[in-house]
Description:
single chain, alpha+beta, Elongation Factor Tu (Ef-tu), domain 3, 2 domains, six-stranded mixed sheet, six-stranded antiparallel sheet, globular
Amino acid sequence: MSEGRILIIGGGLAGCEAAWQAARKAIRVTLCEMKPKRFSEAHHSPLLSELVCSNSLKSEALDTAPGLLKEEMRRLDSLIIWAADRSRVPAGSALAVDRDEFAGLITQALEAREEIEIIREEVTSIPEQEVVIIATGPLTSNALAEAIMALTHRRHLYFFDAISPIVTVESIDFTIAFKGSRYGKGGDDYVNCPLNREGYYRFVEALRKGEKVPVRGFEEAMSFEGCLPIEDLAERGDDTLSFGPMKPVGLRDPRTGKQPFAVVQLRQENREGTLYNMVGFQTKLKYHEQERIFRLIPGLERSEFVRYGSLHRNTFIDAPQLLQESLQLRTDPRIFFAGQITGVEGYVESAAMGLLAGVNATRYLNGREIIPPPRTTALGALVGHITNTFISDYQPMNINFGLFPPLTERGRRREKRRRVVERALSDLEGWREAIG
């Protein structure tokens, strides 16, 4: 075992993945997590890698960018993907998990590693001597945020991330709601609440008039486009929701045999199937307003909310100006950043940056050359985004095929994506051999 040690600050997806990757190479790790001594406004469980938003890790189909990223991580022995595969719940072509089982598996796996010491204390400053991975995520504590600002000589950027409500399955009226997936893909994995034209427009109007949690005066409201609150989408136009999260295409109401005018989908939240979350219904409405307005949805008139939607600040650094491709701080290479604080968006993307930080910090500690993943891979495409110095207004990004280098040959979109995936997995194997 190496005599050196890596200090990882943050026990979320990125920090846990980084710790796992380093421990696999017999590197000693100190993983610092402030829970349960202190919780952020969105965390409630003492377990590591607690999921605070959706329980879905998005598509695992190989012809999608999220699916490709998961496959790359599986091939690199990702702890996060291992736990997700073993705690999955039905969600069509998506990989959704029982969040408690998921976090429990990760916590147990890390506690069982002799190379890893887990310290349950808040870190408020950055050590000056050790190799450090900062993986504190979008809910970085104020004290550590101040330390990072001093370290980087930059102001933090931020946007707001909203959480969808969860209801009990027994409170759903299945004389109205029905099970099924759009176009039959995934079987009966979703619960669908159909709305007619009149009910839909009444619901949209209620959303617009609903009382919201106020944004604090010193903060400017900025939302990630892929995670906008449902009421903000309603403000964009009467029909925006019916072409967005409430689009009814590919679904038929068994009571009428026809496609509804609009539909609200619920996705299974836990393995037992007792909880369902409202897909795409992240919100900043006040709690009592959520009950009043969401109970206008047919099938949810008597819904029992076990978690309301909420809003929290999301912090990330100006990565293109601050980080090397290795995820090292340009001004201090012993410091690595990982996870959502780098400006990637999404559970798997955050874990992927933790994987790379763990691999790279291990090589740095051992005095070996750090080899970034090829840009043709999903991992490399993400790194390319967060270190793209040509970006003038840096914003978070999910993995998508637009981040990959284009193919030179022509072809249909589906065929070109197939070739992009084949190229990525082939190049990943070469990189995996190079890093040992």
